[in-house]
């Protein structure tokens, strides 16, 4: 198979002489559709408050001025943004993008203090933007990392009932101070080509083993993705969206549509959505029932989502008017063919598909096909313009169509390495190609099918078993709301598949009424897999029921946490197997 190139036509020129914020607020790129100036950019979910581009631009300038007068912002004064979704996200991100000696580092809002300390130290952070709901974690991490409490800026004031804590400046206070001072911050213009190496973000990769890695751009001494990489991906996505041949009312992506940001998506949801003229409803924390209410309240059309099985299983779905929904796209977690087909029955008027991307490619690589209302079962769509892919066999030769192999990609948005980890950089970024670690297949129509993470594939009696395959199969069972499959290593059998399962609402009610039902559900799930899968794909290590599957803010499984938990449970004798003794 030769190289596979992105669909949707050639790319228009990508500017390399401006920052991301200049591109978003001040530049009229040919790929950008004309949007109605009265369309709000952001809508605050809790209050319905609408925020337009002029307010965002003014607040960005005011925050830059306020911070400059309050703090000594010098060369490489790096910031950490430790917050769930918030209407101040664009203001904080674009301020730090416009101040070329400042680098923002978004942190997972579910981090523990130790995890946040790792990020603060790795990125040499000097100032933290923190949400009041996770303030105690931010304060504890700051103290450990040697950051004074005065350099914690809160997005909103702490509740009046909070006592015994230091006094902190808030983002609204800094914006007010900046406006009073006359917004004196002046943004420097970039020289031609400078955006290719000037840093924009310090973004941690959502890797599945060890502590997260960080991506960095070419020829840079800092940890980040360049302005050019991010601008390029926005242009790539917009070019693909513009190539949709359908009439305006039927297009997948339309200016004026209302999207929802219930998961963190720095490039795709925030930047592409606003660039393309959509309004974004900002939801701080995902809650499925509240999301249904938001879809109904704001007549949301476009919903990037992760755990789509809830549309199938939750009793609240039938109680809400979801007729405004036109598109649901899954990008962070695999969407099996079985789930896609069942969703199309529950939501017959909605286009359902999935895409593919990763931090190291900054960020989108593939998107759903324009000519299919329901994506090909299991497909992650087709490559976007400007992206080129190869599929490699284990010996390094090119795989044929419909033959599985290792996906490597290249294009204008690629990052170029991992911060302070030359070994990982050499292994992942090779001659301009990002080695994704994903086993994939391209069919004859150029559609991408992700089989699994190569390093997550289980090896059972010499056979490869993809956890995603078993997870998709289990999600089709009415007693399963969410699931993660991990392996426990054994001398004789190799990996023993173990399923961590979140019971469905109905199953939880049965367990609550009769605790013995939990064991019956476990047994039923083991039997269900045994009857539907070949012998080496059975759940030989069993099933464990848990309250929640750990995921990062974008919804990707944090498999390593459950893998470690399984190993520890086995060591302690809390897991049993009828056939083997595990080697740990």
UniProtKB/TrEMBL annotation:
MF (Gene Ontology): CoA-ligase activity
Domain AMP-binding enzyme C-terminal: 469-556
Protein origin, superkingdom: Eukaryota
The AMP-dependent synthetase/ligase domain, residue ranges: 46-419
Protein name per UniProt: AMP-dependent synthetase/ligase domain-containing protein
Species name: Postia placenta MAD-698-R-SB12
UniProt lineage: Eukaryota, Fungi, Dikarya, Basidiomycota, Agaricomycotina
């Amino acid at each position: 198979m030769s190289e596979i190139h992105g669909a949707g036509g050639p790319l228009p020129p990508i500017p390399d002489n401006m920052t991301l914020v200049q591109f978003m607020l001040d530049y009229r790129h040919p790929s950008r559709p004309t949007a109605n100036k009265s369309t709000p950019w952001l809508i605050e979910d809790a209050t319905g408050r609408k925020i337009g581009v002029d307010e965002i631009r003014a607040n960005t300038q005011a925050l830059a001025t306020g911070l400059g007068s309050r703090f000594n912002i010098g060369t490489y004064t790096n910031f950490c943004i430790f917050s769930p979704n918030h209407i101040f996200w664009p203001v904080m991100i674009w301020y730090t993008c416009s101040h070329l000696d400042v680098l923002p580092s978004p942190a997972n809002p579910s981090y523990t203090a130790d995890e946040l300390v790792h990020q603060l130290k790795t990125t040499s952070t000097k100032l933290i933007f923190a949400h009041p709901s996770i303030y105690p974690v931010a304060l504890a991490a700051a103290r450990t990392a040697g950051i004074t409490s005065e350099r914690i800026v809160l997005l909103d004031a702490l509740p009046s009932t909070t006592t015994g804590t230091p006094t902190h400046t808030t983002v609204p206070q800094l914006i007010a101070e900046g406006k009073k001072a006359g917004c004196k911050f002046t943004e420097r213009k970039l020289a031609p080509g400078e955006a290719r190496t000037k840093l924009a973000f310090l973004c941690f990769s959502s890797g599945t083993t060890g502590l997260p890695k960080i991506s960095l751009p070419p020829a840079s001494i800092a940890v980040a993705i360049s302005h050019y990489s991010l601008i390029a991906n926005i242009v790539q996505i917009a070019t693909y969206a513009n190539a949709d041949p359908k009439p305006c009312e039927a297009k997948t992506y339309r200016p004026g549509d209302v999207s929802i940001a219930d998961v963190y998506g720095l490039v795709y949801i925030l930047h592409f959505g606003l660039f393309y003229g959509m309004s974004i409803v900002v939801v701080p924390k995902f809650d499925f029932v509240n999301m249904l209410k938001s879809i109904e309240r704001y007549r949301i059309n476009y919903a990037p989502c992760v755990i789509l099985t809830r549309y199938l299983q939750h009793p609240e779905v039938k109680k809400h008017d979801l007729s405004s929904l036109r598109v649901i796209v899954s990008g962070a977690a695999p969407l099996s063919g079985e789930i896609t087909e069942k969703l199309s029955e529950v939501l017959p008027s909605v286009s359902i598909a999935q895409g593919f991307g990763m931090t190291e490619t900054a960020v989108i690589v593939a998107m759903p096909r324009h000519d299919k209302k329901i994506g090909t079962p299991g497909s992650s769509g087709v490559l976007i313009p400007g992206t080129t892919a190869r599929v490699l066999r284990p010996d390094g030769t090119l795989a044929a169509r419909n033959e599985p192999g290792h996906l490597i990609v290249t294009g204008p948005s690629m990052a170029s390495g991992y911060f302070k980890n030359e070994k990982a950089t050499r292994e992942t970024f090779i001659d301009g190609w990002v080695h994704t670690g994903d086993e994939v297949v391209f069919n004859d129509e150029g559609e991408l099918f992700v089989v699994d993470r190569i390093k997550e594939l289980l090896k059972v009696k010499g056979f490869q078993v993809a956890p995603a395959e078993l997870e998709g199969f289990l999600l089709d069972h009415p007693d399963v709301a969410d699931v993660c499959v991990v392996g426990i290593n054994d001398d004789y059998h190799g990996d023993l598949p173990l399923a961590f399962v979140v019971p469905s609402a109905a199953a939880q009610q049965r367990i609550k009424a009769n605790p013995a039902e939990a064991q019956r559900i476990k047994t039923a799930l083991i039997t269900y897999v045994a009857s539907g899968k070949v012998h080496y794909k059975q759940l030989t290590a069993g099933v464990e029921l848990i309250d929640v599957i750990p995921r990062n803010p974008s919804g990707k499984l944090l498999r390593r946490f459950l893998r470690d938990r399984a190993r520890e449970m086995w060591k302690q004798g809390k897991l049993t197997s009828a056939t083997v003794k595990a080697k740990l």
